[in-house]
Amino acid sequence: MPRHDATPRHPSPPVGAADRRFVLAHCSDPHISWRCPVSWRDLAGKRMLGYLGWRLRRGAEHREEVLDALQRDLREASPDHIAVTGDLTHLGLPREFENARRWLRRFGAPERVTVVPGNHDAYVRDDWGRTFARWGEYMASDDTGPSAGPPPLFPVMRRRGPILLIGLSTAHPNPLHLATGGIGAPQLTRLATALKGAAARGLFRVILIHHPPVDGVVTRRKRLTDAPAFLEAISRYGAELILHGHAHRTTWRILKTTAGVTAVAGAPSASALGRSPDRRARYAIYRIRRAGRGWNVDAVERLYSPGGDAFLTENRRHLHMPEPLA
Ligand SMILES: [Fe+2]
User: Fold this and answer.
1) Which of 72, 85, 167, 236 sits 20 to 30 Å CA-CA off 198?
2) What is the number of domains present in the chain?
3) Measured in angstroms, how far is the CA atom of residue 298 from the centroid of ligand 1?
């Protein structure tokens, strides 16, 4: 995917406005593929295998009623912003992109929702205008707007109060047996510049990425191929929070680097009924507040309860992040 440089054209709100709490919700991997008629013509190449997997196994796991419950819960929580870290589709079909766009619209204005793509969204190479362009408003940087395509343009950079959201694309088509991702040197260069600049401005830096950037979360065939280069940038310039998907289970890791403390958190599929309890749908809410020159983060994990058809609080975490050293 082509990228662009996203230096904000408009001045950002003063950081002083940032002293209030900012509430960020994170969900991932909804795999919205129901109500999507599929013809044999759609199923060339890798899509055929993906479709069979959906019919035989995964279609029973990813459920519309779970996403309906998620929408109700998020309406109640009323976060300032919602991050969705990829795999909104299963086969990357244009009709799935349209279904996912309808789903996103239920969250509210695109300014409140940021999307990065996952490997299923780039399942095979397809026309940008028929696929990702439908999510343009959710992947637009502050300075470009949705009509900047083709194609939008990562890293996406969105300033919201005291937060800088940096959305990376790791999605590219893979051979049949692989689900790897890659960031690429151009995005990594712009990421480093953004992290450094945001640290100097005292912003809370949130990176959105589909593939987990830390070891031991997914198998080699699903890995982020340039994770070492990504982690080197984090180690050098710092970031407060990295949110990812892809693993379909909750993960939580604290990185202590020369640049400060970084929390790395993965959300499972937002639509999973849960063949095993650790894979059942969850999403997270982060309440971020300035604390001196550092930050306090209160994280709440909400778990889907099939019995009550609702999300309930499962885990709470508190994290203090001292002033970044970068
Ligand atoms: Fe996924």
Assistant:
1) 85
2) 1
3) 26
Expressed in angstroms and rounded, the spacing between residue 270 Cα and the centre of ligand 1 is 10
Question: Ligand 1 is a single-atom ion; what residues have CB below 5 A from it?
Answer: 29, 87
Q: Which helix (H) or strand (E) holds 163?
A: strand 163-167
Q: What is the 85 CA–ligand 1 centroid distance (Å)?
A: 9
What pLDDT, in 10s, does the model give residues 84-107? 999 999 989 999 999 999 999 999
Q: Where are the alpha helices (DSSP H) in 62-131?
A: 64-77, 94-105
Angle at 194 between CA 224 and CA 234, to 5 degrees: 45
CA angle 144, 122, 85 (to 5 degrees): 65
Per DSSP, helices labelled H in the chain are 46-53, 59-61, 64-77, 94-105, 185-200, 227-237
Report how far ligand 1's centroid is from the alpha carbon of 313 (Å).
23
Q: What CATH number did the domain enclosing 51 receive?
A: 3.60.21.10
- 208 and 245 Cβ atoms separated by less than 8 Å: no
pTM metric for this prediction: 0.90
Is 326 a domain residue? no
- pLDDT the model gives residue 145: 61
Give the confidence band of 149 by pLDDT, cuts at 50, 70, 90. Answer: low
pLDDT tens by residue, 256-314? 999 999 999 999 999 999 878 899 999 999 999 999 989 999 999 999 999 999 999 99
Domain limits for position 33: 19-321
In a domain, 256, yes or no: yes
Ligand 1 center–CA 98 separation, angstroms = 18
109: three-class secondary structure by DSSP? coil
Tally the C-alpha atoms within 13 A of residue 186's C-alpha that lie toward its C-beta: 12
Within a domain: residue 123? yes
pLDDT for residue 27: 98
Q: What is the dihedral of CA 252, 24, 180, 281, to 10 degrees?
A: 70
Is 196 within 8 Å of 237 (Cβ atoms)?
yes
